[in-house]
């Protein structure tokens, strides 16, 4: 009886030991990881994050400044035009962000273990998803343009003043990274961003409100354009090593990390000096409204010196938003 009881206990212990046998860790090779990424269903958040929402303040402030300048020059403001130009500008930037993610991935500038841009790796988005999103934003941009056309109802203004700006802006946005020009990889990225989200987008928003272009708008756009370019500059400084490995040339990779730090400082110095010069020419100190956030520049410069690039990209974009918003307010308070 005792022997039978002992045997039953031993048998029970053996069964329990099987239940708690540790499972060896599984390893995934590159192909398994790629398969997992492609088969994961993207969510609404995935699509949103792929557009880099934190960066969309760039196009918003450019459009805001263009509308503010239109109000300054004409004391006229069309809310419908403002809404259409905002959504058009946001769509334009989303196209640029998605095309950039797509081509950085294709040429190997972004790789899974190192890329700061996680669009092609963490969100369950395939190349097909990205191309469909680009197409969607292209359609949305076109619809915004159609809305502006219907609102203005003046073919000469549309095809002489507005469409050329829209077309050039769209082409620069796409070919910033897309083949065959790939401007970013040839050291022309900073110039492309300066032109697209500075003079072109600001002038485009201005022309939609006023039905004409004004050369002075290009001048007014320069301080904001510089703060916008500072966002790209931080991004490219962070990616110097990855870009070199992929054979891509940026201004940051050309001048090196140390000189990029001094260029970052110079961008803000020039932006504020240019703004101050504009206010002196007009005799209207209210244009210097962005001086309110000037102390923040010192914190940004310190972050750059400490090489906290990942956090600094978003912080620089946020600074550009406040700079642009305050600048726009200052513009509206200095009517002609």
UniProtKB/TrEMBL annotation:
Q: Region Disordered: what ranges?
A: 13-38
Chief location of this protein within or outside the cell: membrane
A Gene Ontology cellular component where this protein is annotated is: membrane
**What domain of life does the native source organism fall in?**
Eukaryota
List the InterPro entries. UbiA_prenyltransferase (IPR000537), UBIAD1 (IPR026046)
Give an example GO biological process. Answer: vitamin K biosynthetic process
The topology of this chain with respect to the membrane is: Multi-pass membrane protein
Localization in the cell: Membrane
Membrane-crossing residues?
79-99, 133-152, 158-179, 191-212, 218-235, 261-279, 285-304, 316-335
CDD domains, per database record: PT_UbiA_UBIAD1 (cd13962)
GO molecular function ontology, one term from the record: prenyltransferase activity
Q: Does the keyword Isomerase apply?
A: no
The protein's UniProt keywords, in alphabetical order, are: Membrane, Transferase, Transmembrane, Transmembrane helix
Q: What is this protein called?
A: UbiA prenyltransferase family protein
Organism phylogeny: Eukaryota, Amoebozoa, Evosea, Eumycetozoa, Dictyostelia
